[in-house]
Write a structure and sequence with these properties.
16% strand, 13 helices, 277 residues, single chain, Enoyl-CoA_hydra/iso, alpha/beta, ClpP/crotonase-like_dom_sf, 2-enoyl-CoA Hydratase, Chain A, domain 1, four-stranded mixed beta sheet, seven-stranded mixed beta sheet, Enoyl-CoA hydratase/isomerase family protein
Length: 277
Amino acid sequence: MTNDAYSTLHMSSEHGVARIVLDSPPVNALGTTMMRELRTVLNGLRDDSSVRVIVFSSADPEFFIAHVDMHIGEEMDALQELAASAPADVNVFQAIGELIRHQPQVTIVKLAGKARGGGAEFVAAADMAFAAIETAGLGQIEALMGIVPGGGGTQYLRDRVGRNRALEVVLTADLFDAETAASYGWINRALPADELDEYVDRTARNIAALPDGVIEAAKSALPADDFKEGLLRENDAWASTFSLPAAQHLISGGLRDGAQTPAGERDLEGLMRSVAR
């Protein structure tokens, strides 16, 4: 089954595995349309007993999700609409991660390219993530924009890698290669790029083929942690930095110098450090 009724993603489903391919050129920035469509698709899948595993990937081999759209502050009407339908006690960005974390199906990210900011938070929200050694990268870029992660990243990182490494990731704002991310526990495994598709497909199919009740029992025994208080602290920290003049200067300067273009995103860390100088 294939559904092409969305503008930023494509979904197909076969043999218990739903595949969601993110496709929002030029760099798969996480904007209001993608957030709305992801929420629609994932909420629709919650009660679909025929789907047991969800695999997320990207139509762009270079970028999984570049980061949250840096123009998103200009879409207040759409943001308010998303906020009105979000669960209590989470912001619109955290709502995406929490939806993924509490999905009844097993969620898997296949990471061939780069995922920064909200993209890295998306990866950490999934049950499992597998990445290509040669081409994948993960980074919480927000500090170079004068802000802190605001989509669950602080909580998901601490849970996965520990406080010391979470602080390293957030405050260096570096891009981490797949092997380092795997050694930290940020992702499950780093694989050669030419093995990634086959490995993820086999893993998804094998999980989907498990006897009835096994997936549900495993996710019940290993529930997603409750980050309610931490997410509130994170939102307060994000909001307090986003409103500062420095953040607005860095974000606008990044856009001026090529952020959200393929060329600029290839070394976004270098670009943003040059803006700060």
